[in-house]
Amino acid sequence: MITGNYPNLRLRRNRKQDWARRLVQENTLSPNDFILPVFLIDGSNKKEPIKSMPDVYRYSINRLSQIVDKALNSKIPMVALFPKTKTTQKNVNGDEALSNKNLVCKAIVEIKKRYKNQIGIMCDVALDPYTSHGHDGLIKNNEIINDETIEVLIKQSLLQAEMGCDVLAPSDMMDGRIGKIRKALDGNNHKNVQILSYAAKYASSFYGPFRDAVGSKGSLKGDKKTYQMDFRNSDEAIREIALDIKEGADMVMVKPGMPYLDIIKSIKDKFKIPVFAYQVSGEYSLLSNAIQKKIISRDAIFESLIAFKRAGANAIVSYYADRLDKIIK
Ligand code: PBG
Questions:
Q1: How many domains does the chain contain in total?
Q2: Less CB within 10 Å around the terminal CB: N or C of the chain?
Q3: Pocket residues: Cβ below 6 A from ligand 1
């Protein structure tokens, strides 16, 4: 592949000036590459800081426009909604997930009313923001029960679709849920609602700050290793993705992001399907804390985001997405 040798060949020639470097750039970032996560809280007039995530806030429904306006103005295609449910509204079965008055439903209605179809809305399908034990599914005899959980996830999906959600994102990792949810959507007049499957989601320590943000941290009993993937594995990610595509996923997600670039790359090489990366809360907080302490420079943010594009991701879920004007120069 390499023709020629030093001194005829000097790779530094293409780097000699800024314009020369720009000419041979292989990857770039645009606002189209981003999904902005938005945390919701009840009450009114709230913009509440999250201790473990610098510069990220929870918004009450009447303050939601503050953050959605930002996303819209910088032309980000979609926001992802995450609720911090009141402890008193959580129970073992996560019943609040099926209330049409829950935070996510209220936010969908509000955003659709105000912005129509100018911006997409993505919602997690999973029970963890609503269960008293913090797990994504129902529990019976200390086991997260797969098929019974799917029945609830179908109801949650239909409810969110009914409210106006554009993209359902099952993040629960139950077996077989994509096919069942797709079938239920199609059978209930929601054939255009897309499914973004968190198909390769690892049982990761990098979700810590998120669990703090949605208030499931203290309550989580045990870990999620019986449903989320073992981070030692990569062949298994291919099987997960292949299955979800077969079951009808329109797009697939790899999560966390930066420690899993190899997975993004191999999935993109193998399946020609939109692949998204989630730069999760722990990655965000690590970077942000190091920047705050001036251990590394702010340019590290751009570098971390470009890495996803280089690996083959089509879009990135990132808590930095509301500050892109400062990041993409
Ligand atoms: C819930 C869910 C989690 C994240 C997104 N959806 C946490 C978990 O599975 O425990 C993590 C996102 C982040 O860390 O930024 N199913």
A1: 1
A2: N
A3: 124, 126, 128, 136, 171, 207, 210-211, 224, 280-281
Taking a C-beta distance cutoff of 8 angstroms, is the pair 31, 76 a contact?
yes
User: Which is the closest atom of ligand 1 to the Cα of 280?
Assistant: 15
The answer to whether residue 20 is domain-embedded is no
Active site residues: 201, 255
Phi, psi dihedral angles at 124 (to 5 degrees): -65, 140
Residue 103 in tokens = 């935070």
Domain that holds residue 51: 29-327
Record the pTM: 0.97
Q: Whose CA is nearest to atom 5 of ligand 1?
A: 171
What CA–CA distance (Å, rounded) separates 292 from 125?
A: 33
Q: Dig out the tokens for 164 from the structure.
A: 């106006």
**Backbone φ, ψ for residue 275 (5° rounding):** -115, 125
Provide the CATH number for the domain around residue 54.
Answer: 3.20.20.70
Residue 42 lies in a domain: yes
Give the residues of the chain that fall short of pLDDT 50. none
Which of 35, 156, 280 most suits a substitution to test ligand 1, by most atoms within 8 Å of the C-beta?
280
Task: Look at residue 63 and tell me if it is in a domain.
Answer: yes
Pairwise CA distance, residues 205 & 316, whole Å: 19
Pick the atom of ligand 1 nearest to 134's CA.
10
Convert the pLDDT of each residue in 189-244 to its tens digit.
999 999 999 999 999 999 999 999 998 888 888 999 999 999 999 999 999 999 99
Could you tell me if residue 18 is inside a domain? no
For 130, the token pair is: 């609503």
Q: pLDDT per residue over 242-283, tens digit each?
A: 999 999 999 999 999 999 999 999 999 999 999 999 999 999
In the block, residue with structure tokens 């890495």: 307
